[in-house]
Design a protein that fits this description.
Elements lengths: L9 H6 L7 E2 L2 E2 L1 E2 L10 H13 L10 H20 L8 E4 L2 H16 L5 E5 L8 H10 L2 E5 L9 H7 L4 E7 L11 H10 L3 E5 L11 H4 L3 E5 L10 E5 L1 H4 L12 E5 L2 E4 L13 H15 L3 H20 L4 E4 L8 E6 L4 H9 L3 E2 L1 E3 L4 H7 L4 E5 L6 H18 L1
Parallel strand pairs: 3-15, 5-6, 5-7, 7-8, 8-9
Antiparallel strand pairs: 1-2, 4-10, 9-10, 11-12, 13-14, 14-17, 16-17
Helix pairs in contact: 2-10, 3-10, 4-5, 11-14, 12-14
């Protein structure tokens, strides 16, 4: 499907997403679980079909027509992602299976090589388990120590603690750009600058950021930046790791196999150049090609309209939900994306989520893979409503009405 330049109308946008036009339990679907995964526009779905029916083939290794078509489309996505992140060096874009895989790549290939006993790794209380567990594993192996940035009651970093934690012992700072649980936009520019002052490496989890605003890795000057395609209107099973070329060159691959080699003999192996050194085996070819279509879709959007629309949804939904007796919002940072996490006094989030689903409202319930954060707040989890470009104020009203009805049934 050919996309219209420039899309800045929500109804036109909704026409691009066929999944949204259905009923659940006899109610119109209201999809508010976008922080978990976003929906796919026609163009992305068609890209998958076109590859499967037209030029399904393995890449890089063949000289026949289909292999060349697939390779060209695959590498075209790498160029598009590089441009999206504002790097001119396509070697700095590594394809993975998702943000989790990207972080594990850095932990295993960089962490195991450069961390040693007594070195300090700084994380934050806002991290997803995917940006906690890999560093715990590496710390246990290397003897490095993990330090944690605490958060304020509003769900923001305690900046005084940031300054106190960073020292000459700091070798890595791994934090998210945006909290998946609360929507907080973290001041990563500040922490990257502080890291550089002590010679520390920076790993930014961008899984929740790239869909909401432009990310310029060169301006940020971070060493690594990771995100997933399925949160940016693309398919699951595709991720991106940006890494500075000079840093990637010093790292060893942690997965061996085809594609990531130059020569192999039983006497030894030499590795391929970046990025291929880190892309062992046959990748998710159709997914990565389809992600290129997703990037094209994002490029068809009016970026300023997107930000304004999402912030209007956030403000409207916050006001509506705060008017409900007993409802508490967790995460009221001054700077946040369109995510609202909340609880209602005396009601378990699973019960509330189930009754919302009965009325066609899709939200996320639970700890959102942020158990340390939930434990910090002393709660089992939250109900999370996360908004995307295709959501509307009418859907916010439907969420509000469904909540009022559900609370009345559960009280």
């Amino acid at each position: 499907m050919e996309l219209t330049k420039v899309i800045n109308d929500v109804e036109q946008l909704r026409d691009e997403f066929p999944l949204l036009h259905q009923e659940v339990n006899g109610y119109p679907l209201v999809y508010l679980d976008n922080a978990a995964t976003s929906q796919k526009p026609f163009s992305v779905v068609e890209s998958i079909t076109n590859y499967s029916l037209g030029y399904n083939s393995n890449i890089h290794r063949g000289v026949h027509h289909l292999a060349n078509l697939a390779t060209e489309a695959f590498e075209s996505t790498r160029k598009k992602v590089a441009a999206m992140l504002h790097t001119t060096d396509v070697r700095e874009i590594i394809f993975t299976s998702g943000t989790t895989d990207s972080i594990n790549l850095v932990a295993q290939s960089w962490g195991r090589k450069f961390l040693k006993e007594g070195d300090e790794i700084i994380l934050s209380m806002l991290e997803h388990h995917s940006n906690i567990v890999p560093w715990q594993m590496v710390a246990e192996e290397t003897g490095a120590v993990i330090r944690v940035i605490p958060v304020t009651p509003k769900g923001e970093w305690d900046m005084a603690a940031v300054d106190q934690l960073i020292s000459h012992k700091t070798k890595l700072i791994a934090v998210n750009h945006v909290s998946n649980a609360l929507g907080t936009i973290n001041p990563i520019e500040y922490i990257i600058e502080k890291a550089k002052a002590v010679g520390a490496t920076t790993m930014i989890d961008g899984a929740q950021s790239v869909v909401h605003f432009d990310v310029d890795v060169k301006k940020l000057d971070c060493d690594f930046y990771a995100f997933s395609a399925h949160k940016l209107y693309g398919p699951t099973g595709v991720g991106v790791l940006y890494g500075k070329a000079e840093v990637l060159e010093k790292m060893n691959p942690y997965r061996g196999g085809g594609e990531m080699i130059n020569t192999v003999s039983f006497d030894g192996t030499t590795y391929n150049d970046i990025p291929y050194k880190f892309e062992a085996g046959t990748p998710n070819i159709e997914g990565i090609i389809a992600f290129g279509a997703a990037v094209d879709f994002v490029n068809s959007l009016d970026g300023e309209w997107v930000k304004q629309h999402e912030q209007e949804l956030l403000a409207y939904a916050t006001e509506k939900l705060k008017s409900i007796d007993g409802l508490k919002i967790y995460g009221e940072a001054e700077n946040k994306v369109s995510v609202i996490s909340f609880l209602v006094d005396g009601i378990h989030p699973f019960d509330l989520g189930t009754l919302l689903d009965n009325q066609g409202i899709a939200v996320r319930t639970g700890h959102h893979c942020t158990q340390p954060l939930m434990n910090h707040f002393g709660i089992p989890g939250t109900v999370r409503a996360s908004f995307a470009i295709y959501n509307t104020k009418e859907e916010v009203d439907m969420l509000y009405n469904a909540l009022v009805k559900a609370i009345a049934m559960l009280k």
